[in-house]
Amino acid sequence: MSENELLSRSKRPIHLGVHVGLLSFLLAMGIMVGYFSYRGYSDSIRYDYMVHLKGIIDFVLTQIDVDDLEECINTRTVSPKMQETQQLLDDMNDTLDVEFIYFFVPLNETGHDSALYVMTSNTKEEYEAGTVRSDVLGMLSGDEFPEQIAIDNMKAYLGEGVSYYITESGWGKQYTAAVPVFNSKGERFALLCADANYDEIYKMAIKYSILSASILAGIGVISIALFMRWITVKVTKPIRQLEDRALDFANRCDGSADIDSLHFEAPDIHTGNEVESLTMAISQMALSMQEYMNAVLNAEEHAQSAMNTSRQMTELALKDALTSVKSKVAYDEMKERTESEINQNLAQFAILMIDINNLKLINDNYGHEHGDEYIIGSIKIVCDVYAHSSVFRIGGDEFVVMLRGRDYDNRDELLSILREEFDRIATEEEINPRNRYSIASGMADYADGDTFDDVFRRADEQMYINKKEVKSRLMPYEN
Q1: One domain for residues 298 and 352
Q2: CB 441, CB 419: distance < 8 Å
Q3: Tens of pLDDT along 262-297?
Q4: Which of 153, 169, 202 is the last residue of a domain?
Q5: How many angstroms separate the CA atoms of 444 and 458, rounded?
Q6: Which three-class secondary structure state does DSSP give residue 29?
């Protein structure tokens, strides 16, 4: 620094020097608040949209006839049910916070003719303006689906559950939720997507970040005004020290992501006047700002921890602790969903009742620890045979298998395999007696006019018939 610059600095008014230091400090804290606020708000808003879009997708899937839609795709014809689905998408587009809801069939990942367009939602304004898509069940060109979108769509189509990704095309930048659509046989045939305007997500995060920074700026402006009222005399050296420390703090704050390192090192000033009070006030304000930012980050961590804990508790409630199959709570939820399907004439399922034989004999002769192993071993065989179905433990030795999809289609064959396997194990002399698993099983199909309890009762009756037959053929083994 030259002599003239030093001289100019030494002649600079004290209130100007204080202003520069405090404004630099305020700017640095504004940058920090804006950065962390934007990150927190954008993550929160994106999560809210994930939940919102998933809810839209789940609702659409409960309202459509998947087999009819698949037939329309295969024949390139529009059925009355497909027209009803189009009306549903249009109504949801007009009433919900969503940009597009649409069906299509991914064909490749090159971006050229990469998808077969099925249908998309349209707003009332688009109908009035005549700008709705008219090429229903037609090809989508590479201009409409660039290569990266084609790749993301194919991954979502081949995946399990809901996929989320950002797309950018001629329709703008969208935040997309996508899920494969399966027919009643469990075969995927299309992709259902719901889009939100990503620019709106970005704008909302910016808006809230600016609001947070503005609040900080307001606090800073008030603080500066109070400080300047306190300063009535000029004190050169202490003010220069204070200014140097404030600028150093501002430089460290600018762009730093480590809040714990942003500690204001106050100069050692004992003037007994307003300068000393100002030093203490700035130190306290810096500490308060640091505590505020730590509180913001801690709140975010606690919210995430609470969400993870809630998810873990839900998973534990839905899972049987001993066998790792689904629990009675999960069974009750499945029953409620199935009854809803029955009420909508959408149900197609069968129930398999399982009751483990000889459990009391095992417990009495070998102890309850081996009894638990006997239950685990027995139900593992059931799970292996019915690999595509949900198995529920509804009692100590009672289990239910809900047959849908391919296991439903092959239910008679699978039941024969299951019984043959348990007959083999029960009669195998080389197997330790306590591992000769035996079960009774009974199956019943859903028919029109049935309630869920009707099917359950028939399966239970068949199970007891099978239990008598098994006991007549296979006497309980000796100790």
Answers
A1: no
A2: yes
A3: 667 778 887 878 877 777 787 777 777 767 767 766
A4: 202
A5: 6
A6: helix
